[in-house]
Structure to design on (644 residues):
């Protein structure tokens, strides 16, 4: 199971704690963490996953593996700048969005295009007059977020059988 | 002046009329139209620009110039699927978003990341608790949308002098 | 007709003269010049095309249209670094390679993958034991290079009718 | 250590045996295998790495993880078609090229641009009049290829200390 975690490159202590717990729960659930490989939410989530014995993939925007945070197990070096956001999304079977700014919004949009489930922890709610509400799933805490992500992946697989 | 027009690949007659007028106004203002090169809003906008004697660029997702709508002057063939959305945005000095679905939302997000002005005609309003409201500019009709786009480009240039 | 010109970002006076003539012949043949938008061969070719009244497209690696050479009519801003090389190739109906280094080699390889004709002016000859020779066409001067490019595009179109 | 293996999507039994041995040696040397994730050389190399207890990353061109060969541990889904070739290269610290066609040639070219060592097993030799010979390293068998790849990575690291 590959679970993406998206959020800001810089984050408050409180937000990083949330991300750390999300990362930890992913490893405990047997998942691999996919992310953008940089700091803030990405780094805290990677640290959580690694501390719980899991593996992390960082899909980097720049041209060197050196920009990866220290908790990335496998750096993927794209050189595509923000153009790598869609690869983070496509490579994940479900996405957990933690707060976030416009980069996170772009990734939520790609997940919606590609029908990849998005679980939100205080994240974007896009609204457009005359358009159905996006099927974003709100979670109240990291445990619930990861459980909902795992459930959505399992039910996708079941529906394909 | 390069003005991007973003919106759905299929669109109602009413929406295509809006897009056509936007395209026409871009040509009348001396602009080049940048878009994703496909149907719906993109095709109607390209037709408007061409009918008024202007030039259009279609930045295509697939691997053949044949997928361009017939009003694209210059097809750019990326083969990057939705990964081309960021190129549509980066190549524009201002963006006009006409309604739209999640692809349009991804392009609005990239414009916000890259500080490229977005003028909206009944488009997405992303909201997040604790995050400032995105600086999207609402227009009431095609004329105003194009005027606001041109003004935002001119004032950017002035502020750089 | 969209003709790509590929070659180094820095070039000797002699090489730039070749590229300038290629650009001029493209415009005289009614073609649009596609290139990577930077200096050296790209800049000289763009200047030739513009001096003869033609149009040029520069598909840029970086994140700003400011990196385009002054003879680019339409800058396409990718932010994909060398990842934009394949877009230069895909957007062209034939490619003229003028000398060049490894970036040019990557573009020749993509043209070979995609079955886009490559006309060479003193450019790469890739060889592999046990593999057929790549179908590169050598030209003796700019006039012949552009004529061969135009002929190859015309015969492709005829074979599709 | 991340070692890339590049080569054709379809391959003879003999070539797949070479690739399998390369994959096995990578795992025995403690490396992670990076590749394009499809069949032929990529699949055989992945199988070799997995059989020896190692991990494999497949950077896929299409839009689904289902196109990965069964020996890919971690699929990275790009949707960028051949545009993903540069990501295979950038994510590797050294590249082993096994025979190959034009896709392989494009990856060798990118490795040369990016100064990533390329070890060749009967692969391309690009030549251009007036250009220095590309610094490709020929290996006589899989064991030597992997040893040269590991040595080149180690000496890079040493020279950075």
């Amino acid at each position: 199971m590959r679970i993406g975690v998206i959020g800001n490159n810089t984050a408050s202590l409180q937000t990083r704690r949330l991300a750390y717990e999300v990362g930890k729960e992913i490893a405990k659930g047997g998942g691999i963490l996919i992310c953008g490989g940089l700091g803030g939410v990405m780094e805290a989530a990677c640290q959580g996953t690694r501390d719980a014995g899991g593996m992390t993939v960082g899909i980097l925007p720049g041209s060197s593996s050196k920009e990866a945070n220290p908790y990335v197990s496998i750096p993927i070096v794209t050189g595509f700048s923000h153009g790598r956001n869609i690869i983070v999304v496509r490579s994940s079977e479900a996405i957990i969005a933690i707060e976030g700014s416009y980069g996170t919004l772009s990734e939520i949009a790609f997940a919606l295009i590609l029908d990849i489930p998005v679980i939100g922890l205080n994240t974007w709610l896009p609204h457009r007059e005359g358009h159905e509400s996006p099927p974003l799933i709100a979670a109240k805490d990291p445990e619930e977020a990861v459980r909902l992500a795992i459930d959505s992946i399992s039910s996708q697989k079941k529906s394909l059988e």
Q: What stands out?
A: The mean pLDDT of chain D is 97. The CA atoms of residues 59 and 76 of chain D lie 5 Å apart. Strands of chain D lie at 2-6, 32-35, 56-60, 74-77, 94-98, 118-121, 125-127, 137-138.
